[in-house]
């Protein structure tokens, strides 16, 4: 832990932003990773304490990694599921070829510094030669049961200079489902020696530990021991909070796990516990203001459970005033390059393009968090070509933009604030649209609460960007300006901030990344995606689109659009199918976006009696507006029965939930059809794993196409312990339509 005595009293006098009532119960504050709040602390004391909360050395290294990789690999790669069941036959993991060098080469090209692999996902299948289970790689066809994916990855990591992290799922469906399973088996807590010796498989590391734990925690500790001692240095241990299922009131002895990790992997940070936290979503969304000094209700150092840290605001003053402890804990912005965490296929599974990934990189790394991007290997044991190309392109853009600082070399002390501002010059007048600011967080904590950037244009200062906090790093993005001087103004801060780094950059303006959707009038709208800076969505207003200086071209036949494809001028009607589009701007070709649109819903009727659902009626599920939803009840009349108006051939369906913590989401359901609207026959069923953490639109392709006029969706399971569930939108996909 970083400890550093500092005379805050001196600082206090120097800074104009300190509230008057700062009482200084103490006149010396200690820099620390966690600071307790006392009943006697005034609000000003609390703010001053927040300005003294600093990362540990390990957390600071984790932040400096900036861009890291996640690898989800396992039986789900072969079964095409998001969540397994734990009942999979290990034979399904039919891996014939593995090239972890290829993974590391692609990660290196992207500039990623670490990879975290799902050594064990929720299904309980292990990717290494564990002594403590047969449910894994040792029972699979891969290298006739002799393979070890962790070993291969660890060797590749060393070769390419990439750090290694492990994801070990506390949830373990195999240990839940099998009769002799250890999870929730109500075994007594007794003293257990870790590691448990297994004859013929001695450990080179001779350390031993004794913990008072039950069977499942012992199993988990033994596996941690293997992973932390036999695969080189481990830099992160990732504990997922998600649980497809629980059993027997199983508790996790996190404090024992932590003791083991600190002893065996002293350089590792722990995700999901006190070192690193989840950003709160899996879609790459970032908060406008991501504070890493977080308000805690109890001491995080001695907590066995961790509080939910998914709210929009975690470390603003209003939260700090309620805290018992202030603790430094950076967020990881985690998402997948492909739709879903595991590889499914090359055709239906969308891959994020380089514009999208680069944008997320700038928002997450440049928004005081770590960017954790998942690249799922395919069934040939390699990253797919499309993913590799995106990683390479993103890496090229990051270094072309950020390795090139346009500011003049700064003298020592040049970053000291005078009257809360600092002026820096460029080597020569240049075009700039990115400005990077870093605070000296490891020594002085995160303090800036509001700041603005001015450029010297036409003999005067002009404000070109402003934002809230800075912390580890803030990347300001703005319309290109031509200038030779910038002025950074600190408008509000928690004690006087210390600037570690400033730099100016130029990123060539790219054609907008496009989103494709069906509007409420049933027309196809192609518009800039909201995430990308500079280009704004225009809705159905086509005229607006035409005046923006870029050109959109699209295809409806599944082919790749190019400069000969149809020009998008305004929203159009389309009966359903694949839409692919891209934009051209200033001689550049944008990334391709694709969306498979469902059938047009006008003419459909809902057949169920619509009773007590006035606020959230079933019709909301078909109104093309994901902001409105049907609120169903699992025990009530919960089905959605649709009359298409004519017999349709339907290939699949999609479900979009409404994301609200108090309302459930459908995780399983059945599809029924009828000829006469009286007798209903179940023809298919679906399962949407991980829907709460990833509440995006989920598609389900029917095992056999359905031919019917009447179709019913019957939810059979709601995730969590909710009775009510939301359906923001339901779509159906067709192959052909004909008259009855
Ligand atoms: C979630 C899990 O349930 C997903 O399957 C995935 O591993 C993701 C990173 O975390 O909570």
Structural features, described:
By secondary structure, this protein is an alpha+beta fold. It has four domains: 2-27 and 406-505, Jelly Rolls (Sandwich); 66-172 and 221-292 and 329-402, Glycosidases (TIM Barrel), CATH 3.20.20; 514-597, Immunoglobulin-like, CATH 2.60.40; 605-733, Galactose-binding domain-like (Jelly Rolls, Sandwich). The protein is built from 14 helices and 36 strands. Strand 32 (664-674) and strand 33 (681-687) form a beta hairpin. Helix 5 runs parallel beside helix 6 (149-160), helix 5 runs parallel beside helix 12 (385-402) and helix 11 packs across helix 12. The structure holds beta-L-fucopyranose (FUL). Beta-L-fucopyranose (FUL) binds at residues 240, 242, 334, 341, 690, 693.
Give structural attributes.
740 residues; alpha+beta; Jelly Rolls; TIM Barrel; Immunoglobulin-like; 8-stranded parallel β-sheet; 8-stranded mixed β-sheet; 14 helices; 36 strands; 33% strand; globular; disordered N terminus; binds beta-L-fucopyranose
What topology does this entry show?
Blueprint: E1 4-6, H1 8-14, E2 29-31, E3 34-36, H2 43-50, H3 57-65, E4 67-71, H4 75-79, H5 100-110, E5 114-120, H6 149-160, E6 163-168, H7 173-177, E7 190-194, E8 209-213, H8 215-229, E9 234-238, H9 254-264, E10 269-271, E11 277-278, E12 293-296, H10 317-320, E13 325-328, E14 331-336, H11 354-365, E15 369-374, H12 385-402, E16 421-439, H13 441-444, E17 448-457, E18 460-467, E19 474-493, E20 499-505, E21 514-518, E22 523-528, H14 542-546, E23 551-555, E24 566-567, E25 572-573, E26 577-585, E27 588-589, E28 593-597, E29 605-606, E30 630-633, E31 640-656, E32 664-674, E33 681-687, E34 698-718, E35 724-727, E36 729-737
Parallel strand pairs: 4-5, 4-15, 5-6, 6-9, 9-10, 11-14, 14-15, 32-35
Antiparallel strand pairs: 1-2, 3-13, 7-8, 12-13, 16-19, 16-20, 17-18, 17-19, 21-22, 22-25, 23-24, 23-26, 26-27, 26-28, 29-31, 30-35, 31-34, 31-36, 32-33, 32-34
Helix pairs in contact: 5-6, 5-12, 8-9, 11-12
Bound molecules: beta-L-fucopyranose (FUL).
